[in-house]
């Protein structure tokens, strides 16, 4: 960690939850994304939804590109003291975390089903017109 970066207490990070003052925690690192809020492709609301908690799951679930990940160091300001993060806000991203894996699997199944339903509707419309 660079000398000008510090370790933050969770409650201090959580206070930065506004469009004009926004910090997020991803993989235990704290990012001041205030200057990025207007540029975020998903809108500022998406980022604001990840404040006041460990935003790792939200970030990973969004399927960010390599380009998005390359921007992260620009906004990095330090680490969060994991001992200050309330248990309900912790995200365990380890390989053995079945809750995360099953949630991702469930969401992937839902996405596939939504895609299949859309294809079926398209096929039905095409069949009716033919």
Automatic annotation (TrEMBL):
Keywords linked to the UniProt accession: Endoplasmic reticulum, Heme, Iron, Membrane, Metal-binding, Microsome, Transmembrane, Transmembrane helix
Pfam families, sorted: Cyt-b5 (PF00173)
List each copy of the Cytochrome b5 heme-binding domain by range.
5-81
GO CC annotation, single: endoplasmic reticulum membrane
One function term, GO molecular function aspect = metal ion binding
Q: Which Gene3D superfamilies match?
A: Cytochrome b5-like heme/steroid binding domain (3.10.120.10)
Q: Where are the transmembrane segments?
A: 109-128
Superkingdom per UniProt: Eukaryota
Compartments where located: Endoplasmic reticulum membrane; Microsome membrane
Membrane association type: Single-pass membrane protein
Q: Which family does it belong to?
A: Belongs to the cytochrome b5 family.
Question: What is the recorded name of this protein?
Answer: Cytochrome b5
């Amino acid at each position: 960690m660079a000398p000008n970066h510090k370790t933050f207490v969770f409650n201090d990070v959580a206070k930065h939850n506004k469009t004009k003052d926004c910090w997020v925690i991803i993989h235990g690192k704290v990012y001041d994304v205030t200057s990025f809020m207007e540029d975020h492709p998903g809108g500022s609301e998406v980022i604001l939804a990840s404040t006041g908690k460990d935003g790792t799951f939200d970030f990973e679930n969004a399927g960010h590109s390599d380009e998005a990940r390359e921007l992260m160091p620009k906004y990095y300001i330090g680490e969060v003291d994991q001992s200050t993060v309330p248990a309900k806000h912790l995200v365990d991203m380890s390989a053995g975390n079945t809750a995360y894996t099953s949630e991702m699997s469930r969401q992937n199944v839902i996405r596939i089903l939504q895609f299949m339903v859309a294809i079926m509707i398209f096929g039905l419309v095409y069949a009716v017109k033919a």
